[in-house]
Amino acid sequence: MNKSALKLFATSMRLDLIHVVKTKIDFLLSQSYKDNLALYNSNKDAITKIEERYAKEKEEFIEEIAYTWFNRLIALRFMDANGITPTSIVSTTSEHPIPKVFVEAKAGDVPENFTLNKTLFFDLIDKKVSGIKDSDNEAYKMLFIAACNHFSTLMPTMFERISDYTELLLPEDMLSQSSLRAKVVEAMSDEDCKDIEIIGWLYQFYISEKKRRCFCKA
């Protein structure tokens, strides 16, 4: 296990997540988003909660959401590598650049324990939803969130139940080779994931960077 490389990954991932979460919040609270009434009204309650929390505790709120997605991404990568998930949720290979769960779901094989709106999912797959730039990405995000919610009942310590509005703040790009999901898969090799301590080290590196920055501000 290359701890120096893992530390670089964890600290870089934290900054990347903070950036994408802040960008997503700014977009959801923008006037242009609110002017899209059909989209805004479908998420109005969640956006109101985001707006309230962002106004009260801006930095803490961003940190919380960023850490939530870091936690889930590395946990699912570890579980994929060790065969704990029923099918690969985030992991890919050079031969199969798309997570297997998405390939299977597109073919109609959605995991039984995943709760999601299947009508919307397949409408996205069939490009029937207007106003969506990347419908495959949106469909995959539904599967990713369903996986997180499923494991929250089995492993509540690692996958504590998240608020509905948190789902709106999932990084926008989850499928491409340059996505944060892909960076997690690349950084956490199958070999490294054989060692359970990788999770502890990644948490430590992520949190230590946050603490260091807090001390610098003090």
Give the key terms.
single chain, 218 residues, mainly alpha, 65% helix, globular
- From N to C, what is the helix and strand string? HHHHHHHHHHH
- Mean of pLDDT: 90
Which regions have little confidence, pLDDT < 50, spanning 5+ residues?
A: none
The biggest beta sheet is recorded as:
none
The level of helicity is 55-70%
Question: What's the number of domains?
Answer: 1
Distance between the termini: 34 Å
Shape: globular
Rg from C-alpha positions?
A: 18 Å
Helix-strand category:
mainly alpha
Total of helices: 11
Proportion of β residues?
Answer: under 5%
Structure in a nutshell:
By secondary structure, the chain is an all-alpha fold.
Structure notes:
By secondary structure, the chain is mainly alpha-helical. It has one domain (3-202). 65% of the residues lie in helices and 0% in strands. It is built from eleven helices and no strands. It has helices spanning 3-28, 31-35, 37-42, 44-56, 58-81, 100-106, 118-125, 135-154, 164-167, 180-187, 197-217. α1 (3-28) packs across α11 (197-217) and α5 runs antiparallel to α11 (197-217). The mean pLDDT is 90.
